[in-house]
């Protein structure tokens, strides 16, 4: 029983960390914050979500990649997260953008749409860190950047 409790705690901690990283640029006082957080949690709880428990090493790597992306332009950040979503959808047939909580936000315009889409992209990037640790694709251009 103690082992099962530890795994449940680790899974919840990993989920909370992915949500924290996905919302890192959004002020928690922003009125859309709770709705985006809800959409992220719903995506991570979805039975079809291919993202499994992240190890501490994987969480650290995800945070490092996001910190590097934060130093890039908004265009580069956006592309990296969208390429991650595309790769996730192509390889698993699971798309967090199609979940009801996500769709409600993605039907909006402007910042709500962009913030939601990019937050979901962090889930996809976490999936890449976990399933393709030596081949993380961040650009759709001629030169593909990988973190080896």
Key terms:
single chain; 148 residues
Main beta-sheet annotation = none
> Which structural class matches the secondary elements?
mainly alpha
Instruction: Give helix and strand order, one letter per element, not per position.
Output: HHHHHH
Percent of residues in helical segments?
55-70%
The Rg value, from CA coordinates, equals: 15 Å
Write down how many β-strands occur, each being a DSSP E stretch of 2 or more residues. Answer: 0
Number of domains: 1
End-to-end Cα distance? 38 Å
Helix count, per DSSP? 6
Shape label: globular
Strand content: under 5%
- In the predicted model, the low-confidence regions spanning at least 5 consecutive residues are none
Can you describe what's shown?
This protein is mainly alpha-helical and 148 residues long. It has one domain (2-131). The chain has 6 helices and no strands. It has helices spanning 2-22, 33-45, 56-70, 74-92, 100-106, 110-131. The protein starts with a helix and ends in a 17-residue tail after the last helix.
């Amino acid at each position: 029983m103690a082992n099962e409790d530890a795994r449940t705690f680790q899974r919840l901690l990993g989920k909370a960390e992915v949500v924290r990283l996905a919302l890192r640029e959004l002020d928690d006082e922003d009125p859309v914050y709770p709705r985006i957080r809800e959409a992220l949690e719903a995506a991570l709880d979805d039975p079809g979500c291919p993202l499994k428990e992240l190890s501490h090493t994987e969480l650290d790597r995800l945070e490092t990649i996001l910190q590097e992306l934060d130093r890039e332009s908004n265009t580069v950040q956006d592309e990296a997260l969208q390429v991650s979503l595309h790769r996730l959808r192509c390889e698993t047939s699971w798309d967090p953008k199609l979940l009801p909580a996500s769709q409600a936000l993605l039907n909006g315009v402007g910042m709500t749409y962009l913030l939601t889409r990019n937050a979901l992209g962090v889930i996809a990037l976490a999936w890449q860190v976990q399933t393709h640790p030596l081949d993380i694709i961040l650009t759709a251009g001629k030169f593909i950047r990988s973190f080896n």
